Amino acid sequence: MQCVVTGGNVKVLAKAIHSLSRIGDELYVEPQQDGLALRSVNSSRSAYACFLFAPLFFSRYSLPNGHDFRCKMAIKSVQSVFRSLATLEKTVEKCHIELDEQKNRLTFTLHCKHGLLKTHNLSYQDSESLQAVFDKEGCGNVFRAQPRLLVDTVVHFPPSLEEVSVSVSDNRMWFRNHVDEEERSKAMVTELCLASDEFDHFAVHAHNSVTFCLKELRGLLVFAESTGLPISMYFDEPGSPVVLSVTDSVLEGNFVLATLSHDDHSFQKNNTKGAPTAPPPPLDDFMNDDMDPYLIAMDTSMAPGTPEASSALTVCSPPQTPAANHSTRLHCEEEEEEEEETVDSDRPPNKKFRSLFFGSVFPSQMSTQPLPDQDVLASDSEEDDS
Amino acid sequence: MPLSTQSQDDNDEQYILVASLDNARNLSNILKAIAFKDHAIFTATPNGLKVTVEDSKCLQANAFIQVEIFQEFTIKEDLVGFQVNLTVLLDCLNIFGGSTAPGLSTALRMCYRGYGYPLTLFLEEGGVVTVCKINTQEPEEPIDFDFCSSNVINKVILQSESLKEAFSELDMTSEVLQITMSPSQPYFRLSTFGNSGNAHYDYSKDSDMMELFKCTTTQTNRYKMLLLKPTTKALALSCKVSVRTDSRGFLSLQYMVRNDDGQICFVEYYCCPDEEVEEE
């Protein structure tokens, strides 16, 4: 593999890596036909991000000879290549990324001003493909806004805030800090209301409220702001992921974030799509959430047969009583150890994310049978599911 | 001037060393460049003041404040030596807060009466005088690194700007910093070997950051990163740096530091090589 990045694109690449570092500790690198994919997933697999840089993003882009290659590496070490972000634009003229499979090295060479040449030979590990399965196009609620709007919104929340709730009506969007039930008495609620005309695009299909982590959104905002790209947001209902994306002609970035699932909504959630006129959840409803079933998943292609099944998913059943399709899905994921981790009640209290998988249900994708070869959001399996 | 009245009250006759500065920052700044250990050996000669700090018998830093920097420099002996706690001295020099506002500076008068006496500092700012007495210690003999310019094999002079970037990005997980100097490629190379892989910073000999390039033999030496870390303080203050290695692989880093008044002082670091490296 050989890629050459020049000029301002070096900074774009560096910013992308920095925003990926908000997600996880490892960077998954996969040179593909359609461009260089950089991905990351967090340890609880509740957040996933992928940047795809099209071949045209590079002044030269060539794939490894004759075989698929993918690897993962500590994201910190890649960040260190682009450490002086502020001066990067002024100092770096050209960046070569080259793969040396003999030495198991990924080499970043920065050609800087004054003839300074920085070479970073980074070791990597072979990895499986990391591929989230999500269908943003299938989401009912779609918004697009200039990064400034979201930056100005998010700035009102303290850095310590972990989650925000986003609710929508036909022509309004509310951002509110999410407060755990036990903290309700002492918490202060900050709410911002954005009118639909502040957005470039505002399409609401269901009056829903979703709660997701702010950290990753902030990471993407830094990227979007520096590149000036508008951010699109796609979501359906509590429990199914929210997708944040930035796109231009040579790159695409997608951040898939788990949303808090509402226990008391799990039965009605399947009806939402069918009845888009269903009343929006009461404003304070998010406060009733049990924090445990913060069920996440990245598998949107799972096939919940019945409302009962999906509710079983959302409450994160112990392994001995999983809903039928839940266990089926887990088995075909070859992710047993992850599953155990997920449901092991002895593990240190994991604040929110008890499940690694989305209990999300996209009604549009429902089938009546669990598929044996389903894709997992963060599959570590050898299968190339792309 | 309260300070001058004060000094009149004192009997200057009793001091073997009196040094005055209108701006104490001209001393404190350059001392910061070598402040990585508490003990500093002061050596005063009619040429000026040399302050030496050492670490692990492997690293030595010298700051030279030549006589021209001082507004007054009176020395009654050929050589006056004492040792003080550098951290305490720096705290005293910044006792008025070390403001960098223009027109507001701390004046300093530094007096030493001789062996067994404290170092006395008269500091004045805005009409307020503080007198600090710092106990002196038995001066140790600084290590002689025996670094002669006649044994220098390779030498480069760089504008500090370009090295600052490299030093700020150095992979601190690497135990050593390897310096390669060579008349051919890669000319001048800084390498680290850290947890995540290795990194090389190559400076071309034709770079406009390279003021002088005089390398005769290819030499690769490693220096402990922990030892070199304090040199970044000097680098940050400096405008130019000269990197030299001698036949034994000893490293000399000389920093040219410009003070608030545009005068030039020098800070020098010597460092022992870490281990023998096969030349590549």
Automatic annotation (TrEMBL), chain A:
Which PANTHER family did the record assign? CELL CYCLE CHECKPOINT CONTROL PROTEIN RAD9A, DNA REPAIR PROTEIN RAD9
Concerning Pfam families, the annotation shows:
Rad9
SUPFAM superfamilies per the record?
DNA clamp
Q: Where is this region: Disordered?
A: 303-386
> Could you tell me which Gene3D superfamilies the record lists for this protein?
3.70.10.10
A single GO BP term for this record reads: mitotic intra-S DNA damage checkpoint signaling
**What name has this protein been given in UniProt?**
Cell cycle checkpoint control protein
Sorted keywords for this record are: DNA damage, Exonuclease, Hydrolase, Nuclease, Nucleus, Phosphoprotein
Chief subcellular location: nucleus
Cross-referenced InterPro entries: DNA_clamp_sf, Rad9, Rad9/Ddc1
Gene Ontology MF terms in the entry: double-stranded DNA 3'-5' DNA exonuclease activity
Q: Name one GO cellular component term.
A: checkpoint clamp complex
Record organism: Gouania willdenowi (Blunt-snouted clingfish)
Automatic annotation (TrEMBL), chain B:
Q: Where in the cell is it found?
A: Nucleus
**SUPFAM superfamilies under this entry?**
DNA clamp
Which cellular component appears as one GO term in the record?
checkpoint clamp complex
Instruction: Cite the Pfam families for this sequence.
Output: Rad1
InterPro entries found in the cross-reference section: Cell_cycle_checkpoint_Rad1, DNA_clamp_sf, Rad1_Rec1_Rad17
| Predominant location category | nucleus
Gene Ontology biological process: DNA damage checkpoint signaling; DNA repair
Record key words, sorted:
DNA damage, DNA repair, Nucleus
Spell out the subunit comment.
Component of the toroidal 9-1-1 (RAD9-RAD1-HUS1) complex, composed of RAD9A, RAD1 and HUS1. The 9-1-1 complex associates with LIG1, POLB, FEN1, RAD17, HDAC1, RPA1 and RPA2. The 9-1-1 complex associates with the RAD17-RFC complex. RAD1 interacts with POLB, FEN1, HUS1, HUS1B, RAD9A and RAD9B. Interacts with DNAJC7. Interacts with RHNO1; interaction is direct.
Q: Which PANTHER family match?
A: CELL CYCLE CHECKPOINT PROTEIN RAD1 (PTHR10870)
Belongs to which family?
Belongs to the rad1 family.
Entry function: Component of the 9-1-1 cell-cycle checkpoint response complex that plays a major role in DNA repair. The 9-1-1 complex is recruited to DNA lesion upon damage by the RAD17-replication factor C (RFC) clamp loader complex. Acts then as a sliding clamp platform on DNA for several proteins involved in long-patch base excision repair (LP-BER).
Q: What is this protein called?
A: Cell cycle checkpoint protein RAD1
